[in-house]
Each structure stands twice: as C-alpha cells, then as structure tokens.
Amino acid sequence: MTWWNLASRVREVPLHRLLGATRDRVPVGADFGVMDRLDDLLSAVGKAVEQRFPRVKLKFRPGWDLDMLRAVRKQHPRETFHIDCNSGYRLADLALFRQIDEFRLAMIEQPLAHDDLVDHARLQSEIRTPVCLDESIAHPRHAAQALALKSCLYVNVKPGRVGGLTNAKIIHDLCQQAGIPCWVGGMLESATGAAACVALAMLDNFTYPADIFPSARF
C-alpha cells in the first residue's frame, strides 16, 4: 500500500485514479453491534436513518437475532439493512436463514465458518437473501473459487485482509467479470488507512455502501 501511495505522489495522479476509478465519491453505511438493550439499538438506528445513511448493518448472533431483526424491521419497514453473522452459524441453521428471508435484507454477511466456501454455496442455493462472503475471501484465489462454486452474491473486500490494494483490485475485477457486486470493508480505521479504502471503494464494481467512517470523523 505504501508503494501505491508513492506511485500516486510521484506521478501526481490521485490514488483512486491510479487504481482505475472514475468516481470521486463513496457512499458509506452505518454499523451497529450488539447492545445492552434493544431500545438502545432502535434509538441508534433511528438516528442513522434520520441522517440518511443509505444502508445499515446489524450484528447478528445467537441471542441477538430474530427478535432484534423483527423489532428493527417493524420500526423501519422500507430501509436497506443487512446483517453480519461473523461466522456464528452452521449449515444446520438453515431453517433460521429461511426465516430471515422474510425480512427482505440486502444480504447476510459471512453466516458460516470463516474458511468455508462449499457450505456457503449450499446455503445460497437454499435461500432467497443474497449471501455475502467476508472472512472467507482472504486471497484472489478464494474469490475465484467462490465465484466458481456460486458461494455468494456479494463480496466484502478489506484491503487489510486480502493482502493490500493490489489483491483487492484483482478481487474487484474478478467479481466484476462474474457479475458479482462488491463493497469495501473496514479494518484500516486510521485516517491514513481510511483514505486508501476510500480510493479503492471508488472502483466501478464497489456498488454497495462501504464500511468506512463518514468524512466528518476525520
């Protein structure tokens, strides 16, 4: 990533242009983890909706699952939401995921094991809601395998997870060729790291709002 930054400065070309981007802005979403009380979550989500975030991500785990999702969807029947399971479930939980179909989510992020591609393909074939792979895609090779297996309908690309901007761009291009949209995740949370993520997120196939803090934070 340092070499990409250096090349950008030497050539006097903005990093997003050097990566091949044509856009100059990136939409970002709001994220909410598990909270002490459901009312706290509903209040926080309400504020994000008022601030017109284009989508909201909700952490989803045993004990903070369907009841939480039902309450949020009741309060906001038309907003764009997706859930992040952080590998908290198994294929044996298929009945749960079929219930999740009722909530009209944008996607279910990393529902099964962090290193799995095969079970995710089976899950995607059994439910309507798009599956998004996150931790399972740690290298362009994993992305190519996931695409071949039809393991997902979205891919979350985190430069810090996949080996930097070069690998992130390769994964973006593979997914674009396969017609699978992507979005940029976090992990690089400093202003310097976020700047690299913003540049990456301007590429054409990053169509879902990114997991990057809004500009005001920096």
Structural summary, described in words:
By secondary structure, the protein is of the alpha/beta class. The protein has a single domain, classed as Alpha-Beta Barrel (TIM Barrel). Helices cover 43% and strands 11% of the residues. The protein has helices at 2-11, 15-19, 38-50, 66-75, 94-100, 118-126, 140-149, 159-162, 165-178, 191-201, and strands at 30-32, 56-59, 81-84, 108-109, 131-133, 154-157, 182-184. It has a 7-stranded parallel sheet. Strand 4, helix 6 and strand 5 (131-133) form a beta-alpha-beta unit. Helix 3 (38-50) packs parallel to helix 4 and helix 7 (140-149) runs parallel beside helix 9 (165-178). The chain starts with a helix and ends in a 17-residue tail after the last helix.
Secondary structure elements and pairings:
Elements lengths: L1 H10 L3 H5 L10 E3 L5 H13 L5 E4 L6 H10 L5 E4 L9 H7 L7 E2 L8 H9 L4 E3 L6 H10 L4 E4 L1 H4 L2 H14 L3 E3 L6 H11 L17
Parallel strand pairs: 1-2, 2-3, 3-4, 4-5, 5-6, 6-7
Helix pairs in contact: 3-4, 7-9
